Amino acid sequence: MFDEARLDDVQALELVDTRGSLKALASAGAHVRTMVRSTREAGLERLADLRPRGIVVAAAGGSAAVADILEGATRMSGAIPVQTCPAGPLPGWVGALDLVIAVSQSGRAAGALSLVAEAARRGASVLTVGAPDSPLADVSAQARGLHVPVSVSGASSRTSLWAQVTPVLMAAEAVGLMPVRPEIWEALADALDERAQEARPASESFVNPAKILAIEIVESTPILLGSGPLGGVAVRRASAMLGRTGRVPVAFGTLPDAASQIVACFDGPLTGGGRGDEDIFADPFLDAPPRPPLRLILLRDLSPEGAASRPLSDRVMAAAEDAGVRVSLLDAESPEPLLRLARHVALTDFAATYLALGHGLDPADSPHTRLLGDQRPA
Fold first, then answer.
1. Phi and psi for 133 in degrees, rounded to 5?
2. Which of 45, 168, 344, 369 measures 20 to 30 Å from 246, CA to CA?
């Protein structure tokens, strides 16, 4: 059972959070600063003269969002096609003119290892991101690739997202895929630090945005809806974290395409169909609905780029109000798309972690996931 009081008991949180997931998430800003240095020291300049025909990103499991972020960030401005490939084989077009990026925080993910080996056989350039002195580092060396070591103590692949994505975005800038201003890395680290301060364990649940969101989710059947250029990236990451970390399955979609499927749910059984036929004499315990009511969680982009989706998001919220569906509105405003994404991702990452902790579950440990054994990507 979810215990809201536990969220405001720092010692109780520490007892349940045995692997320090909250601390790892709070270190995201430091991870960015560390990986900027590590990437440069690894020899990023080796990529300066590389102009690949295409890029394939191999990342799965907790690292999957890395590929999603790169693809989303370069979709409109990138002159080089980017394709994600979480498992083999590589796309048939990959050859000596292309770049394969493989990401595995542990450096042991079977999919990443096999794809790098295949890339080497085809003569493709290789960039790997993962633990130092790992199988991934070894296979990268055999492929004459560039390996960027990820050394972030106490963090898992799910809680070290920004450590993994930083070298990939820096590499994208190095090969001419996307322009990145040098000061963006410190701004990104600062934005993550700011969100960590807002969502810290000592911040009480009535002012902590991550705890508030976790409580709203546990009391409802949530649907995530994203807007803006990177809205799809944000909601896919949030859905993955709420499922894998928070143990709550969540439906999600992105404007404008998902507007109809989301709004259609407002006519369904979780809202009473909008008929207004509630029995005022019903016992709230004996006659309560079998599932909690629907809640719309809207990750909204307030930038000029996201303005095109704002009228539609307003209509979706109006439809929710008409159907009696509660709305959690999460806004992100910054001139930089990456910073807006970081604020959304950091908030939902913390909320998913608090959701697990409120239920007395260790965010990093799932007994049933352990049954999958070595078949899991890492």
1. 50, 40
2. 168
* Structural domains for the chain: 4-9+199-358 (3.40.50.10490), 20-186 (3.40.50.10490)
The tens digit of pLDDT for each residue in 341-358 reads 999 999 999 999 999 999
CA distances in angstroms from 24 to 30, 126, 310, listed in the order given: 10, 28, 34
Q: Which residues of 332-352 are buried (b: 16+ CB within 10 A; e: fewer)?
A: bebebbbbbbbbbbbbbbbbb
In this prediction, residue 121 carries a pLDDT of 96
Spatial CB neighbours of 179, under 8 Å, sequence gap ≥ 6 = 77, 173
Closest of 219, 249, 188, 243 to residue 363, by C-alpha: 243
Determine which helix (DSSP H) or strand (DSSP E) holds 301, and give its type and residue range.
Answer: strand 294-301
Q: How many CB atoms lie within 10 A of CB 253?
A: 19
End-to-end CA distance of the chain: 30
CA distance 305 to 14: 40
Those residues whose C-beta lies under 8 Å from the C-beta of residue 347, and which sit 6 or more positions away, are 195, 199, 209, 210, 213, 330
Measuring CA to CA, how many Å separate 366 from each of 18, 69, 169, 363, 370?
Answer: 12, 26, 31, 8, 6
List of long-range contacts for 77-81, beta carbons under 8 Å, 24+ apart: 77/178, 77/179, 78/172, 78/177, 78/178, 79/176, 79/177, 80/51, 80/52, 80/53, 80/54, 80/55, 80/175, 80/176, 80/177, 81/54, 81/55
Residue type, 258: A
User: Which two three-digit tokens encode residue 238?
Assistant: 């949030």
Dihedrals φ, ψ of 139, to 5°? -70, -30
Please state, in angstroms and rounded to a whole number, the distance separating the CA atoms of residues 142 and 117: 9
